[in-house]
Amino acid sequence: MARNRTYWLPENGAQPDLLVLDGFQFELALLGTFSEIRIHLDKMGWNILTATLTAKGVNEEDLAKIDEVVERVCWLLSFAGGALIAVNIKEIDGGPVSLPHKYIESIIDTSKPFIPPIDLCEPGIARQWVQASYNPYVVAEGTYRLRAVIHLLSLADAEHNFTIQALLVANTLEILRHSFAKNVLKSRGTFKEILGKMVQELKITRAWNPKVITDFRNKVVHEAEVEGSSAQEKHARIMEAMHFCDVAVLALLEWDKAGGTYFPVTAHCSPTKFVR
């Protein structure tokens, strides 16, 4: 596996992080030291190969399942790193003569994120994040359309145009609302009512301001505008709505149960312990 950002990588490529996901063993290793990769990123931009993810002791009949696990890992790391992460090279070694092959895909073009939710550059955090959030992700993936939610949040985190960023965040809110109403409540209601019930379901006690989030969504969806008399105020409105989306995802992934920390996009501060 190769990808195009360095936040989540282990400090030293010689000591890979070990993961057990869906019964398979994986090694996550950096292609060089963290410092070397950081220099390459600064020189060459944010779209380079930086790491490998190796599945150990895999049988041929396991390959389709391995692909599914790796794709989920990519989505989890995309949310944590605030930018889309993808497999660029897939290589199979060993087994029958007809089996080994190498598949290469062009690196996706992605931009530097604003504030990635998880501090993946800290040693051990990548392993903790993926190992702790993988099973909750599998449970919630279809019900809440988490791939679509993470995709939009990753795009929003790297977007610098206020209008486009606001539209991405508002669409994320709509996906969460619609998915919860359809798959969990199985009933209809207003935007505020549905999200309020989702907040109760997920036991969220912070980041939920019903009036602010609802007013933000309505203004963006109906008028393609963000409330605020200055760029700073508009940015604050967007970040408050985005923070709610981040908290909803972290609650679904049960990050609090792992004692995990995160960066609130509403505050420029050190990582804080995640509390719903």
What is the number of helical segments per DSSP (H or I, 4+ residues)?
8
Instruction: Report the helical percentage.
Output: 40-55%
Low-confidence parts: 1-13, 97-102
Query: N-to-C terminal Cα separation, in Å?
Result: 32 Å
Rounded mean pLDDT is: 83
**Large-scale geometry:** globular
Write the H/E string, N to C: EEHEHEEHHHHHHEE
* Topology, number of strands: 7
| Rg value | 19 Å
Major sheet size, sense and barrel closure: 3 strands, antiparallel
Instruction: Kindly estimate the percentage of residues that lie in beta strands according to DSSP.
Output: 5-15%
Structural class: mainly alpha
The domain tally reads 2
List the defining traits of the structure above.
276 residues; two-stranded antiparallel sheet
